[in-house]
């Protein structure tokens, strides 16, 4: 029983560290160049004005994702905080939501058709890798049963559990 418990504690720790690292990589990726328009490189916070030019509707999913993009650092911080202080269904739901939004927008921008004035850069790929790591860490943490990570409970004196 103790070996299984130790394995679950390690799984929690590895999942949390992986999710935290993924969120940091995703955050770093948002500040890297996402698009080059002419001679100017634009990070993810500068590209909302180019949504129409890269082929997305402002009212579409990617348009909404980019419109809400300034709160991505906050969403990443909430998802990581919930990994370290889990709250039943809220922890995997928040990490999943953030990973889908951040990864989806990054993938959509990266796969947008290149024009002579606009070309994708490395930022979306780094952000997508971070989102995948965040999701993998959250899955690893969530696949272990959410029980206290303190010492295992002592067996009852009468032999029942």
Describe the structure.
- The protein is mainly alpha-helical and 161 residues long.
- 57% of the residues lie in helices and 6% in strands.
- The protein has five helices and three strands.
- The chain has helices at residues 2-31, 61-67, 72-84, 90-110, 123-143, and strands at 35-37, 40-42, 118-120.
- The protein has a three-stranded antiparallel beta sheet, with no helix packed on it.
- Helix 2 (61-67) packs across helix 4 (90-110).
- The longest helix has 30 residues, at 2-31.
- The radius of gyration is 20 Å and the shape is elongated.
- The model is unreliable at 145-152 (pLDDT under 50).
Task: Briefly characterize the structure.
This protein is mainly alpha-helical and 161 residues long. Helices cover 57% and strands 6% of the residues. The protein has five helices and three strands.
Radius of gyration: 20 Å
Instruction: Please tell me what the overall shape is.
Output: elongated
Helical fraction equals 55-70%
If you average the pLDDT, what whole number results?
81
Number of strands: 3
Task: List strands and helices in order, with pairings.
Layout: H1 2-31, E1 35-37, E2 40-42, H2 61-67, H3 72-84, H4 90-110, E3 118-120, H5 123-143
Antiparallel strand pairs: 1-2, 1-3
Helix pairs in contact: 1-3, 1-5, 2-4, 3-4, 4-5
Q: What descriptors fit this protein?
A:
single chain, 161 residues, mainly alpha, three-stranded antiparallel sheet, 3 strands
